[in-house]
Amino acid sequence: MTDTETSRPVGSILRDWRERRRLTQLVLSSQAGVSARHLSFIETGRARPTSAMIIRLSECLEVPLRQRNTMLLAGGHAPAYPQNRLPDAPMSAVNDAINRILDAHTPYPAVVVDRHWELVAGNPAVDVLTAGSAPHLLEPPVNVLRLSLHPDGMAPRIANLGQWRGHLLARLQREADVTADPDLAQLLDELRGYPGGEEADATDTAALLVPLRIRTDAAELSMFSTTTVFGTPRDVTLAEIAIESFYPSDSATAEFFRR
């Protein structure tokens, strides 16, 4: 769903999300505590839902906050979730917390990305990963996935490119499916067109973690990553931010970063 969908009836948008989540009207109505008849009336436009009803249904459907605002506008209501930039005063505490997390993770790499995987912030150790990448890929806005898999980016130095590429594409596919974001779908198509390894390598179920193995002038580094998101966010920007932190997979990599 896109922000331009406010011109569509709210019932039609709700139906699309219900079908995307593969729920019947009976199941969704039971979860939301409304009658299946009333839900059917909402979807067909015979009943106008209140803002509270739209929020309740969107929570059951796990609709992202940005798209919940879209549905509220489509239903003739004001958005319920603010959207502040990180430098704005209401986000100062969050911005400080993010900077502390990045600093605390040093000497290992960590980045902050938005909903489209564009770089919001990073610590100095990220330079180890991006060294040698083409300047045009490092000009803002930097897309972290594009930088990783582009043949002029990190890709030539990734020793297990097929496995890492498959891992990233599978993750992006899941996010595109869950959010229905056309920009993510477009990014997925772009990245699939890049050369480099077989995606099937990422289906190795014997591996508990998919490592990133990247070559440097000094050594081949092996790392795994974790994703941190903020719990129960009520701001659109905050809900769409993730912190990707890399940790050494072996003692040699740990020693490299400590030096």
TrEMBL record:
Name under which the protein is recorded: Helix-turn-helix domain-containing protein
Gene3D superfamilies (alphabetical): 3.30.450.180, lambda repressor-like DNA-binding domains
Organism expressing this protein natively: Rhodococcus kronopolitis
SMART domains the record matches: HTH_XRE
InterPro entries: Cro/C1-type_HTH (IPR001387), Lambda_DNA-bd_dom_sf (IPR010982), MLTR_LBD (IPR041413)
CDD domains found in the cross-reference section: HTH_XRE
HTH cro/C1-type domain residues: 14-68
Domain of life of the source: Bacteria
Pfam families (alphabetical): HTH_3, MLTR_LBD
PANTHER family: BLL4672 PROTEIN-RELATED (PTHR35010), BLL5781 PROTEIN (PTHR35010:SF4)
